[in-house]
Design goal:
By secondary structure, the chain is α+β, with helices and mostly antiparallel strands. It folds into 2 domains: 1-95; 152-263, Efflux pump adaptor protein, beta barrel domain (Elongation Factor Tu (Ef-tu), domain 3, Beta Barrel), CATH 2.40.30. It has helices at 2-35, 40-117, 184-187, 248-263, and strands at residues 125-130, 146-150, 155-161, 174-179, 190-202, 210-217, 237-241. The chain has a 5-stranded antiparallel β-sheet, with no helix packed on it. A two-stranded antiparallel sheet has the order 1-2.
Length: 267
């Protein structure tokens, strides 16, 4: 559009220049025609060409003005379209931002549900027992789901003490742990310490009642071998808890003292 305007302006300028030149030609011909030195037709032809040049210049100027008007209209139309587009874009942006905020809110809520549904242990280790085995079971808060042996903590042994022997077992006593996979006569035993004795008995199905006793093994080292034993959760073992030291005379006198105690008791 701007190119067309420039072309019309150039046409108007050229036609105006031609009209000026023809005007000078007319000024020269007029006295000659009046004196009879030039035919009157030459003057009329010059005047005709002058009018044509002025007409062409005027038409070019009008065309340039029309193109300018069209250009201004196009610019206004473009500006209007830009304003409309920006308004629609702003409205769409607000709508998209609102939906995005809603989706993020729903995402956070769903992630919260997922986090609450996840079961995570507070530390890494080996699962030694699973208490809830039903798929899809609903449990109450605080329910123990599984027992985990910590990977980097001291080894713990869960021993079963018969009720008739629990009186002689106290926290702090030394314990010798024999592993079924390692012959004690060749490799020796692991040394541990009684950490806790249960207050109540526990009875499994088809088993005698017992007191659950926890024994901690500070170092997983065998007494007769430098070989480090491979210990896994659930491995069967035998525990000997060392009581107070007694002499041979104590062993001989104990049954006699018990017999005398019963003999002098009233029936």
């Amino acid at each position: 559009m701007e190119r067309s305007i420039a072309e019309k302006v150039a046409e108007a300028r050229i036609s105006s220049s031609q009209a000026m030149l023809i005007s000078e030609e007319i000024a020269l011909l007029k006295p000659l025609v009046e004196a009879g030195h030039e035919p009157r037709a030459s003057l009329l032809s010059a005047r005709t060409r002058h009018q044509q040049a002025e007409g062409a210049a005027e038409l070019a100027r009008l065309a340039a003005d029309a193109h300018r008007s069209d250009l201004a209209g196009k610019i206004r139309e473009m500006e209007s379209l830009q304003i409309s587009f920006r308004a629609e874009a702003a409205e769409g942006l607000v709508d998209a931002q609102t939906k995005a905020a809603q989706f993020l809110s729903r995402k956070d809520a769903l992630q919260g549900k997922v986090r609450h549904a996840d079961i995570r242990a507070p530390l890494s280790g080996t699962v030694s027992a699973v208490h809830i085995k039903t798929r899809g079971a609903v449990v109450q808060a605080g329910t123990v789901l599984a027992d985990i042996v910590p990977a980097e903590a001291a080894l713990l042994v869960r021993a079963q003490i018969p009720p008739q022997k629990v009186a002689s077992v106290q926290p702090g006593q030394t314990a010798r742990i024999s592993l079924s996979a390692y012959d004690p006569s060749r490799y020796g035993v692991l040394m541990g310490v009684v950490e806790r004795v249960a207050n109540n008995t526990t009875q499994m199905e088809n088993q005698m009642p017992f007191y659950e006793t926890m024994i901690v093994i500070p170092k997983a080292e065998l007494t007769k071998s430098a070989k480090k034993p491979e210990i896994v959760a659930g491995m069967p073992l035998t525990v000997d808890i060392l009581g107070e030291k007694r002499t041979i005379m104590n062993y001989i006198m104990t049954p006699i003292q018990k017999s005398l105690s019963v003999a002098f008791r009233e029936q």
